[in-house]
Q: What sequence folds into this?
């Protein structure tokens, strides 16, 4: 079983965001990690390979030089091949990123292409289904359970207050949700292996794509701002529970106008 | 004909709340774009309600199951007929499944999970939370149509008027689908879904053990709200992941969010900081949740929650 996993290199979820020049996050001093949902995607691909007794797990990232780390981390956990498309992914919109990834995926062996259900930071949830469309594959999004059959997969898709069981023909795109599995840590053997694997580095032009289209102005960042400071919050002592309860009720009724 | 096209969904013959919201903001945008508000639905019975909310036409692609590929084709057909400037989807599971697919087919940009929308100078301007709500990006979506998915509860739903919509049928080729819906499983304890709830009562590790979620449920039932949870309680197996609020759970923006025994870790705040009224109950006066609470109560949740449940029951009589 061969799969491709698309992995984004993103600021750690604990990071305090600072804004540089009103449009971008200041990268200096920020720790970058594998986007959390991509961990579930990667783990599932590795498990499928192990269960089927072979094949490749190819990890692909589009990003600047630093993004190579995320590929090494993925190999240390069990991926077998890595493709790094170099470029400032942060300056492309989701469709630009999807075009780069789709082009890189085409030349890699795969029956399934995995994504995270959304990238931490961009918080878009767009790239996976866009790649599915560009490759002409069916898609199942926000998946919490996956089984592979003859030429098809069966996936549990999380929806509002329920779960859908969906069958899709292979090749297909799957986006991973928390709950799909418990991601493993890198093994010592894996960390050694990661040092030896050569990452297949490519430019956008190498993929036969036009930079002007990838970085085109379909979605233009006008400004990036920190949320306004919360003001006017008040704190009360809840030692007298019934007095506190009355105060809360009053707030819900008079200020939130609920009930 | 310029204007706005919105993807709408119904449940048991009634429009979902987020669909009413997206019709309302869509209608408002047509004041700037000119042209008409049109809607796209898989259910003919929702057309009348959409008409009352301002839709002049409703494209109906009748199908029982939501299927990505046939509906992408049907929606693209409707877009071809309506030629809208703006295409909106409510941020539901299906809206978020379909929007990027359609965008890629049309080579169009998408702003997802937006909480403000404006049409100016022939462009769609949208605001969206990024970095889990730690920052807000304002973006312009160019191209035609400009696409956005909206954050549930971020836009007010207008009250219906007396308009009527013309129905235009669009054929759906379900046979072309390479996905098949086998089954929909609804959990037996069918609680109110988090994302559309107006009031959410959330519990954290301060509840101490699984059975104490009854303190949260009792208040939620009394107040008519949904039950939320921190990841710590989900990981401990006290409650289902469906209830988790935060970065790796649901992102919610209810009118009222009550957090009890939740410390307010940044990943939890990511899921609820855009709630309109935040009430925190925590025994630790230094708990980070108080920094974003509109009303913070320093005290014991085991005392305060039952007292509040009683007060709410009294008030409702
Ligand atoms: C990648 C990543 C993703 C994550 N995603 C999420 C997410 O989606 N959602 C999420 O919630 N977390 C998430 N987390 C976890 C998060 O960092 C916190 O660990 C978690 O939110 C803590 O849950 P808690 O507030 O219930 O528990 P704690 O932090 O242990 O807080 C318990 C609180 O209860 C209070 N308390 C105790 N007893 C009482 C009492 N009797 N009365 C009143 N108050 C009391 C305490 O003072 C304390 O503040 C994520 C973490 C990571 C690394
Ligand atoms: N620059 C990137 N390189 C590789 N994969 C990416 C990149 N950006 C997004 N992805 C993938 O697409 C998913 C959804 O991202 P997004 O649409 O930005 O929320 C992520 O979880 C990744 O799997």
A:
């Amino acid at each position: 079983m061969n799969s491709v996993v698309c992995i984004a290199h993103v600021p750690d979820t604990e990071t305090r965001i600072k804004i540089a020049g009103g449009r971008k996050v200041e990268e200096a001093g920020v720790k970058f990690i594998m986007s959390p949902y991509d961990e579930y995607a990667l783990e599932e691909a590795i498990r499928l390979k192990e269960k089927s007794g072979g094949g490749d797990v190819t990890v692909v990232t589009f990003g600047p030089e630093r993004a190579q780390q995320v590929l090494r981390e993925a190999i240390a956990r069990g991926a077998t091949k890595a493709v790094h498309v170099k470029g400032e992914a942060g300056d492309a919109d989701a469709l630009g990123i999807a075009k780069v990834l789709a082009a890189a995926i085409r030349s890699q062996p795969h029956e399934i292409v995995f994504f995270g259900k959304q990238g931490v930071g961009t918080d878009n949830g767009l790239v996976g289904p866009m790649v599915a469309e560009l490759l002409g594959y069916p898609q199942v999004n926000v998946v919490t359970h996956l089984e592979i059959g003859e030429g098809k997969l069966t996936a549990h898709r999380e929806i509002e207050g329920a779960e859908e069981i969906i069958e899709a023909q292979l090749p297909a795109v799957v986006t991973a949700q928390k709950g799909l599995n418990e991601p493993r840590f890198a093994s010592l053997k894996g960390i050694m292996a990661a040092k030896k694997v050569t990452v297949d580095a490519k430019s956008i032009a190498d993929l036969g794509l036009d930079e002007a289209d990838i970085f085109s102005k379909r979605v233009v960042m006008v400004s990036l701002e920190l949320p306004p400071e919360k003001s006017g919050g008040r704190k009360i002592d809840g030692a007298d529970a019934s007095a506190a309860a009355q105060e809360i009720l009053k707030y819900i009724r008079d200020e939130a106008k609920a009930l | 004909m310029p204007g706005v096209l919105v993807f709408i969904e119904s449940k048991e013959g009634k429009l979902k709340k987020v669909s009413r919201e997206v019709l309302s903001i869509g209608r408002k945008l047509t004041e700037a774009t000119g042209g008409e508000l049109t809607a796209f639905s898989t259910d003919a019975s929702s057309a009348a309600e959409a008409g009352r909310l301002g839709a002049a036409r409703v494209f109906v692609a009748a199908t029982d199951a939501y299927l990505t590929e046939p509906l992408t084709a049907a929606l693209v057909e409707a877009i071809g007929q309506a030629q809208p400037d703006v295409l909106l989807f409510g941020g539901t599971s299906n809206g978020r499944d379909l929007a990027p697919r359609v965008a890629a087919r049309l080579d169009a940009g998408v702003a997802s999970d937006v909480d403000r929308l404006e049409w100016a100078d022939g462009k769609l301007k949208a605001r969206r939370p990024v970095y889990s709500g730690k920052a807000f990006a304002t973006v312009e979506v160019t191209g035609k149509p400009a696409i956005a998915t909206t954050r549930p509860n971020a836009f007010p739903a207008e009250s219906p008027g007396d308009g009527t919509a013309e129905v235009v049928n669009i054929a759906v080729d379900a046979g072309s689908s390479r996905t098949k819906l086998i089954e929909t499983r609804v959990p037996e304890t069918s609680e109110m879904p988090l994302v559309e709830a107006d009031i959410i009562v959330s519990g954290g590790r301060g509840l101490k053990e699984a059975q104490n979620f009854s303190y949260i449920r009792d208040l939620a039932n009394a107040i008519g709200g949904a039950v939320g949870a921190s990841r710590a309680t989900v990981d401990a197996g006290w409650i289902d992941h469906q209830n988790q609020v935060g970065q790796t759970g649901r992102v919610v923006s209810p009118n009222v969010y009550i957090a009890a025994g939740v410390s307010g870790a940044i990943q939890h705040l990511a899921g609820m900081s855009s709630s309109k009224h935040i009430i925190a109950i925590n025994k630790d006066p230094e708990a980070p949740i108080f920094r974003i609470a509109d009303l913070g109560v320093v005290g014991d949740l085991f005392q305060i929650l039952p007292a509040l449940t009683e007060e709410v029951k009294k008030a409702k009589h």
Notes: The mean pLDDT of chain B is 94.
